[in-house]
Amino acid sequence: MALNGKIAVVTGAAQGIGKAMTEMLLQNGAKVALLDVNETEGKKLMEALKREYGLERTLFHICDVESEEQIKAAFQKTAETFGGIDILCNNAGIANETAWEKTVSINLVGVIRGTYLALEHMSKLSGGRGGIIVNTASITGLSPVLSFPVYTATKHGVVGFTRAMAAASAASGYGIRVNALCPGCVQTDLFSTSISNLGLYSHLADETQKLVEKLGMLTASEVANCLLELVTDETKNGEALIVLPKGRKYMTFPSFTE
């Protein structure tokens, strides 16, 4: 899929990986709706992007991915303004072991909710053009991190949901590819604040630091550049792309259904 003229929605777009994704999509010719619960940062970013990319290529919607009503309204406004939706990046997330129910609600339920509501606009069965959904997971969705058990569980869920949805879309004729980005440690506000939100696992903070030392740190832009590969390569469906400072690779999963 070439990005020029395509219409994208990015959740958690105001900062970090979501901001880098938004900038990458715009640089490659897409129009982008920025969704974020942080209205101040979201509007500030949108104004900066308008100055750089023009007035007609960005929208900002204040949107909590825990709210079906807000997501519906944001998707509808995007479709009405830009003429549809081709790309969804389910990127919003938190890492807070002290608020485990909210972590599950945002990281996993929010991805499922966003995907299902996007189908109403994107699926060829409902009059859409098809397209691509990319879910931001993590290497913790492939290998557990002992200091973040709930975060680990949510990202495992995102990877599993991504793979199942990709297969379901192909079998049902939705015309939508679904992939997951699985970055290692990324230098963002989410990562820097997560260490102080370990709760029951605060005594394992040193283990997190050991992981950083072993894997190294990514920039948000390095992760966003891998999004481009998943979006544009139409052979990629149901993939989990591991992104580390030393390089990227696609995860190979066992199959018990063949």
Can you walk me through this structure?
This protein is α/β, with parallel strands linked by helices and 258 residues long. The chain has 8 helices and 8 strands; from the N terminus they run E-H-E-H-E-H-E-H-E-H-E-H-H-H-E-E. Strands 3-2-1-4-5-6-7-8 form an 8-stranded mixed beta sheet, sandwiched between helices. The protein is globular, with a radius of gyration of 17 Å.
Short description:
It contains 8 helices and 8 strands; from the N terminus they run E-H-E-H-E-H-E-H-E-H-E-H-H-H-E-E. It is α/β, with parallel strands linked by helices.
Rounded mean pLDDT is 94
How many helix segments? Answer: 8
Order of helices and strands: EHEHEHEHEHEHHHEE
The rounded distance between the terminal residues' Cα atoms is 29 Å
Structural class: alpha/beta
- How much strand content do the residues show? 15-25%
- Helix fraction, binned, reads 40-55%
How would the global form be characterised? globular
Spatial ordering of strands, largest sheet: 3-2-1-4-5-6-7-8
Largest sheet: 8 strands, mixed
**Total number of β-strand segments?**
8
Backbone CA Rg: 17 Å
Low-confidence stretches: none
